[in-house]
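Progress report, Aim 2. The chain analyzed during this reporting quarter is listed below.
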Amino acid sequence: MSHVNGRINIAFGVPAYRSQVHIGQVRMWLQLGAAIMADAGMYLSAFIDMDCCGVDKARNYLIAHAMKEGADWLLMVDSDTWCANGRVLLEMIRGADLVGASVVGAPVYRRVDGMMALNAYRFDGTKLVSAKLNGEGLEEVAAIGAAVMAVNLHKIAESTMFRFTDELSEDLDFCKQIHQLGGTIWCDSRVKTFHAKSDVMVYDPELAVVR
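Predicted structure tokens for the chain:
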């Protein structure tokens, strides 16, 4: 894909309800900032925060703002989620850009009916089920949650947006729209992630299980 000046222009976005973010994000954003400043192939177009309810509106605002800033990719990280090494997120985007991905995300655990499950999905027939990942890098998936998600802004339509439906959450419906456009969705299983709601909700690629 061609980029301005041969660089990938990235916007960072945080949907931060009540203007709050977890302390775990501080190191991650510092690492990301230092890494992108040292990377001749990438450029930071904007850092965008959005305080509003609901999260679908916040995500749509981030996309619109990133497009206005001329970004190629928008990286969104939810305010209660963070990564062990922010630098890895740049490699996630670079790899996704090389394969022409529309969306790429990092695996994050969430609670479903009292159990913990990954937010990366594969199809079991027509049903979405949590994917089993190999922990080794980019893997194509059917859908990925938006807790840590990067969107290729050249691969979406003007009508593509996050929206809640009777059947799907706002991020899974977004992935459905990406498929309808003929796009692909990937998960980078190398990224170690943490979720604030439980100190045991850690995705570790070396273990590939909740610890």
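Residues 105 and 149 are 4 Å apart (CA to CA). The helical segments are 24-37, 55-68, 87-98, 170-180. These observations will guide the mutagenesis work planned for the next reporting period.
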